Amino acid sequence: MHSTLPVQQEHPERRPPPAPAPPGGAGAGPAGRGGRLAALDGLRLCAALMVVAYHYIAFDSGAWPRPAQTLFPVAHLPAAYGWLGVQLFFLISGFVICMSCWGKSVGDFAVSRVTRLYPAYWFAVLAVTLVVSLWRSPVNAVPSLRNVAVNLTMLQDPLGVEPVDGVYWTLWVELRFYLLFALVLRKGLTYRRAVGFCAVWAFAAVVAKAADDRALALLLMPHDCWYFIAGIAFYLMYRFRPDPVLWLIVAGCLLIAQHDLLGAHARAEGYMGHHVPRWPTTLLLALFFLALAAVALGWTHRVRGRWLSTAGVLTYPLYLIHERIGWAVIHRAEGHMPRYVLLPALVTAMLLAAWLVHRHVERPLARLLTRGLQRAMTQARTADTAVRTG
Known about the structure:
Blueprint: H1 38-58, H2 68-71, H3 76-79, H4 85-101, H5 106-134, H6 145-151, H7 169-185, H8 191-211, H9 214-220, H10 225-240, H11 244-272, H12 279-296, H13 306-333, H14 339-389
Helix pairs in contact: 1-4, 1-13, 4-7, 4-10, 4-12, 5-7, 5-13, 5-14, 8-9, 8-10, 8-11, 10-11, 10-12, 11-12, 13-14
């Protein structure tokens, strides 16, 4: 998925610096070699665990019998900023999508995204529906079958349908990013086109917000685009060496994002039911950008380990299944075991469940889906060729 192919360099001086090939495919050097970056996998796991901590400890879900800040007086405050894991996911997504798309066609990109997102998602929608239907409680509303059917398309947000699980809102953000990025792939991804895409998207997002145009804002995501744009710029640094243009893009994204993040902070406080200091929000955002900068500059190339690759593939299924299933477990198990035992056991069980979903659902379904979609694309190309030559 993360392999890259040789591409024509637009600037001879922008040849990537030599880098040692990582052992065991744990990372990818800037020279276009394929593989996973272990540091990014570790950051993915951190982001996922931040979101899990927020939903289990800080979010006012009603699963606990008393407010979480009284039950977890120490852990509650750091968990209150766990919602920022989503912003870290978006940053990483910009980096990884740009990396994995180098040398790919739009069709290849579409197949890779569908097979990456949907298999685990389909399972999660059905699993969450089953659990909340069997373990009925005031914590979780039981979705209707009609809503479940729409959720399986991943388009419930634009269609105004209640999501089976609240965390699925981020998938609609990701889908719009993929749609926009596919425009760059039509003629092939290069340094100039990627930089131009970042600049045009940023300017258009500002215009959409200034014009208060809902349709443009829906497409251009003026509140979330800064993380994807910065992630793309960080990958370009990684592949082609840093330059002033890329640093300016990253700095601009950080400055705008930290301002917009205050609104997200207020919404998070609404979900928690109380106020928390704002300054850690800005500090964590800066730390996220610094972490991606460390990856882009090659400072993390010594971060290796097969366990990090495993952690990376667990984050998506963990994110999809943890919220409402976790609340159902907490609601039923609380009072039967100490909460400081229940929480670690629940997180461990969710990580194990995520591995089982990846191993026995996501991987085999992705292989089947990939073969089917690639066969369909081959047939479509054959049909187009027959029409042109006929």
